[in-house]
Amino acid sequence: MRVFPISKQFRVFAFAFAFLPLPIAPFSYNIPVPPACNNSKLFLSSNNIRNIVRVSNTSASPFKMSLGAWRCHGATNREMVEKLAEARIIKSPQVKEAFLKVDRSNFLVVDTSTTSRRDTVAEAPYMDAPQPIGCGQTISAPHMHAYALEEILPTLIKFSTSDDSAAGEGTRTSPTSTNNNKEGELRILDVGCGSGYLTTVLGRMVDRSITNKGRGPIPPLHPGSVYGIEVVDALVTLSRNNILKENKDLFDSDTVTVIKADGWKGLPKYAPYHAIHVGAAAETCPMDLMMQLHPNGGIMVIPVGPNGGMQDLYRIERIRDNEVYEETDFDVLALLGVRYVPLVHSDL
Ligand code: SAH
Hints:
This protein has about 350 residues and is α/β, with parallel strands linked by helices. It is built from nine helices and eleven strands. The strands form three sheets. The chain has a seven-stranded mixed sheet. Strands 1-8 form a two-stranded antiparallel ribbon.
């Protein structure tokens, strides 16, 4: 039976809405986009993924998100974050605190060679819009980052309050895992880290250098590791340099690591992951990534859909441990219509 949680009319509306206020052309690529892989044994098609949807409650309402989205501009980082909170896109203290700690202006390429509007740092970095980061890629709009983090947060809280976060859990699904994380730590994979911004915000949420005591009244998450992976050399460097500007301590404490790797294959070395965020649209759902989720409820937020066409953001939860891939081992929920740059195939 085909079950889909969002009406077709809404999806068309959300998709159209997503295009309206784009201040820049966000989709010019200089990465070759190879033909879609049609090996059905390896890749779950986006049609198939809809067939296995089992509706569960989601913490966020896509409709509410759309109403506030694109309007959360600020003159400062704090103002941008406050606007996201007012629009109820940022809902939790954990996500808000992490956003406040990471100044988005450190992750944008500011062209000072011209006098265009985008030179005005106070204007561009805190605009609720995607921005160019070079190599034909873009940093996503703040509301998309916030939305993705709010989707991921309940899972991080769940693993922080249960024994399941122990690193040994789920290792048999990941034979190449080195499991060198300390027991009880959270592991997060950010695929397509680009500017390094979201990787850094995630790092602030699980910062190893902050003790539970130092976290004050906000319910603490376990400390952990965030692995940002990126396929373009220049963006791996950009990411690292951006993080070094004001967030070097996240490297020093081994909270954040940036690695050149192909998102289609993930990073099995450090799997299983409690959460995976994918920042580029996969035309089919990468099964390798699904199998790197923690088997006791690891969650992935991923856009799936054709390059330049109708894409949906999905929340995929791994609900059963199984050595081999079975569709029924995953709960899949479509969240909202989106438009992302493509997750490219590479020879890595
Ligand atoms: N989330 C980031 C970047 C989003 S743009 C940010 O907000 O800054 C998408 C990124 O995915 C780009 O940097 C692109 O180079 C990267 N990407 C595309 N295909 C990839 C792949 N197969 N593996 C890893 N990264 C990939």
